[in-house]
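Practice problem 4.
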């Protein structure tokens, strides 16, 4: 769990007869959260603007990306509270309700992103491997129903966070737990383990299976052939979009989601063992797992930076919109400025 000062850490770790420092997080966490806030807010705001005002045809992928962007944006608005909290304020001045909401939105964004990325991957898989059947299976209406189901699943499964998260006074400072108090930790461990399996491990397996079958299908020599020159060009564009999507989604899972869940599982397990069987768990091992977990936690929030890149790189509507805007800008400039802009681009 996260604490705002050294004395809090000493009080918390005294439960396990261990004492270790976590001063690094007062520098690391504010820097990473600040970068995610600045760049994430800009990218997601741009994605929301393009999707909302410049989308002529709402495809299932567009609907999923809109929900993914909304999910990221809601979490990004909570980062200023964490930046202030970890930057050396040594106190949580916003009250327990805000603490609960901030912790809840972190997990809602985490698992909402995982499920929407899984939905996008499954949608692309069906379109590549079952192109004929996808005409009946894939529609904007079904994408809306899936999105409603994802939101219902995320909100209901993460609602217990509002119960577990709390504040407690340590010395002169008020601590906002990112897990729960020591008295509820065993219950939180069971809940967290179930959520990790259902909302991370299973979707991750689905994504990996879908991408393995997609890559095998795309590598077939006969894929995209026999449709004429125009059909071949369309197949090449589809293949390029699919490859980009595979790379970006895998980077998100491998960089943001997988390290966080691995280090968190280790830290929670070691902490439980230290509490129940102190002789089986050394303080150094517990400290190492705690540091690893607290380093990967802010990195997990970096998915808010990568998600809009998925739309910008793999989506065609954004590039078409920007191309039209550039053409209009060029037509309204003097000839010399037009040449300079074209050369720069």
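Answer key:
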């Amino acid at each position: 769990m996260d604490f705002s000062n050294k004395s809090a850490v000493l009080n918390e770790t005294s439960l396990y007869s261990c004492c270790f420092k976590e001063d690094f997080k007062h520098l690391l966490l504010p820097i990473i959260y600040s970068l995610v806030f600045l760049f994430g807010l800009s990218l997601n705001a741009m994605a929301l603007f393009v999707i909302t005002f410049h989308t002529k045809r709402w495809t299932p992928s567009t609907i999923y990306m809109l929900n993914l962007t909304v999910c990221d944006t809601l979490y990004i608005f909570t980062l200023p509270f964490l930046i202030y909290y970890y930057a050396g304020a040594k106190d949580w001045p916003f009250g327990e309700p805000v603490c609960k909401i901030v912790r809840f939105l972190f997990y809602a964004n985490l698992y909402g992103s995982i499920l929407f990325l899984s939905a996008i991957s499954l949608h692309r898989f069906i379109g590549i491997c079952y192109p004929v059947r996808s005409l009946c299976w894939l529609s904007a209406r079904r994408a809306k129903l899936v999105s409603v189901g994802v939101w219902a699943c995320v909100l209901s499964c993460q609602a217990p966070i509002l119960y577990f998260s709390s504040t407690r006074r340590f010395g002169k400072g008020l601590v906002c737990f990112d897990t729960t108090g020591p008295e509820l930790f065993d219950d939180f461990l069971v809940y967290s383990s179930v959520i990790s399996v259902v909302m991370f491990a299973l979707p991750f397996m689905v994504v990996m299976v879908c991408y393995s079958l997609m890559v095998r299908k795309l590598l077939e020599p006969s894929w995209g052939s026999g449709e004429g020159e125009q059909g071949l060009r369309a197949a090449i564009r589809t293949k390029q979009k699919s490859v980009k999507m595979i790379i970006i989604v895998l980077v998100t899972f491998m960089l943001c989601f997988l390290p966080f869940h691995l280090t968190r599982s280790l830290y929670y397990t070691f902490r439980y063992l230290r509490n129940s069987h102190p002789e089986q768990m050394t303080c150094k091992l517990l400290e190492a797992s705690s540091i690893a977990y607290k380093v990967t936690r802010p990195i997990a929030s970096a998915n808010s930076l990568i998600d809009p890149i998925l739309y910008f790189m793999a989506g065609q509507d954004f590039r078409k919109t920007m191309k039209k805007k550039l053409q209009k800008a060029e037509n309204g400039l003097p000839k010399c400025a037009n040449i300079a802009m074209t050369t720069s681009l």
